[in-house]
């Protein structure tokens, strides 16, 4: 019985080993997508999906419990944190007297990222919300199955 | 005046909702945050209302994108009234639900969804963009789905499925109407559409689009052929949720109708006749529906449908005085309907049932509560000097003046049936001797702590005082409604406020 369950979870050495390398790569790719969203297709939503897929892959190769161990807080808390970041990035321009949700650009370009504005902070919030939502849904389903 | 402040109530509810997520599962903290957030939001709404009245209007181009390209938020008198009503009801229901809901629902995130629902309502009342209006409608609908189904029993699920199906259909129709409108005018900003739609040559297409909007909003606000989902859904959820639904959700559809049919479309004779006919049927069917029901909440659900008829009737008359009556009636109806649903919840706590044949001797056991209830019920009927009397008399007067006698007859029948039904509720539930002996096991109200009792009763008393206040300060409310009606009759004011005065 135990073996059967393991088989269902794709318990192979190949997957496990490759996951160990794929996980950081996928997360790096998701960050790339997040940054790219400024000018080209990409952004917080897609980036968040890719990042959560990385963790889903990990949970297939190992188990959801082990994946959860990688998080110091529950993925659920990424949702309010991300929402709060979105909220604050919208509020930021109002402090400077601009309309809500206008983009504030910082004067100097940042190395690697390029021009840095409050839109990127908003995207970062979306990124976190998406990871939080996807992982919360998937893990709560896998707990019940 | 251009100001970021217009978004403050929306953002306050959003902030409260996010904060609540951090305290998932912590019931007491959730209650405190919700009540504090609601109170602050209420004060912000009050300030918004006051600012709108002093400055004429408030507006904001979100993100600095100028209209008609960006999303405009605009608050004129009608929006400000709706925002204030929403804030009032949300504060009352927020406090009420802290005491009346069981712990498991709160753990499921009731307050979080509640604040999102209110945020959606406020957004819908303040936006000046038709597609953004659709988005806020979706926020409201998704939140209401969750509120309806959370912790659901079988009956509640059945009601929820009807609700979900009909509202999805309404959303699809609404979205189709927006698509057609965008196709013929090429813009989504309500004020800009209003300017461009006068240039469209195909008047038939414009009328058809306007009717698509009417069907979409009509399903949401439960008008005649499309109302059946409401009585089968609204009596199932806990009364706190039903109070929000009964008070505000159907009125959102009415608000959208008022906006669309005053600013964008100028209804022609055919559309107005259609409104009148639908109003007549809504009034009659809603009224007839109440007669054979024994469950108080079912009766109230049908009364919602019936009273939506008053609002549609005013829309069908399409005169300034009729609009005064509608706005006044909206103010009265939102407050009273929310209140009666909260009262039904307290009755459930006292007697475990809302079936009027099994209720009784409430007057003897709870004289003070019964007095407040009487005030609210009489206000619902429209006994002078309570709040329901004045808008009805205005509407009757205007219908008579317009010589729309069928409509007048329907209005009078609906009023009489309302009187009959309310008197029946009063006689059966409050006057009559209770058919069975009340034991301590039945009465869940007595064991409540004092703070719990206050949290249950204070919102009811508060809203009752507001309706009494409206009744006693008719002049100022009528002045306010006249201002809103004047703006509705002169859409160019709205258009100029959004797009700036024409060169």
UniProtKB/TrEMBL annotation, chain A:
It is found in: Cell membrane. Belongs to the CPA3 antiporters (TC 2.A.63) subunit B family. It comes from the Bacteria. It is a multi-pass membrane protein. The chain crosses the membrane at residues 21-39, 45-64, 76-97, 109-139. Pfam families: MnhB. PANTHER family: NA(+)/H(+) ANTIPORTER SUBUNIT B, NA(+)_H(+) ANTIPORTER SUBUNIT B. GO terms for cellular component: plasma membrane. Residues 14-136 form the Na+/H+ antiporter MnhB subunit-related protein domain. The keyword Transmembrane helix applies. Keywords: Cell membrane, Membrane, Transmembrane, Transmembrane helix. This is Na(+)/H(+) antiporter subunit B.
UniProtKB/TrEMBL annotation, chain B:
It is a multi-pass membrane protein. The chain crosses the membrane at residues 6-24, 31-49, 69-96, 108-127, 133-151, 163-184, 204-228, 240-258, 270-292, 299-317, 369-390, 405-427, 454-472. It holds the Pfam family Proton_antipo_M. It is found in: Cell membrane; Membrane. It comes from the Bacteria. Residues 129-418 form the NADH:quinone oxidoreductase/Mrp antiporter transmembrane domain. GO terms for cellular component: plasma membrane. The keyword Ribosomal protein does not apply. Keywords: Cell membrane, Membrane, Transmembrane, Transmembrane helix. The keyword Repeat does not apply. Belongs to the CPA3 antiporters (TC 2.A.63) subunit D family. This is Na+/H+ antiporter subunit D.
